[in-house]
Amino acid sequence: MKNGVVIVGAGHGGVQAAASLREEGYDGPVILLGEEAELPYHKPPLSKTFIKDAEAKPQPLRGEAFYTGNNIDLRAGTLVERIDLAARRLELAGGGALPFDRLVLATGSRPRALPLPGAGLAGVVSLRSLADARVIREVSGRVEDAVIIGGGFIGLEIAATLRAAGRNVTVVEATDRLLGRAVAPVLAAHVHRRLEAMGVQVLTGTTVARLDEEGGHVVAAVLASGKRLPAQLVVIGIGVVPNVELAQAAGLAVANGIKVDPRMRTSAEQILAVGDAVNYRHWFTGADVRLESVQNATDQARLAARTILGHEDTYAAVPWFWSDIGDMKLQMVGLALGGDRHVVTGDAAENRFSVYHYAGDRLIAIESVNRPGDHMLGRKMLGAGFSPAPGLAVAGPEALKAAFAEFQQGNPAAATG
Question: Which fold does the domain 327-410 belong to in CATH?
Answer without folding.
Answer: Enolase-like; domain 1 (3.30.390)
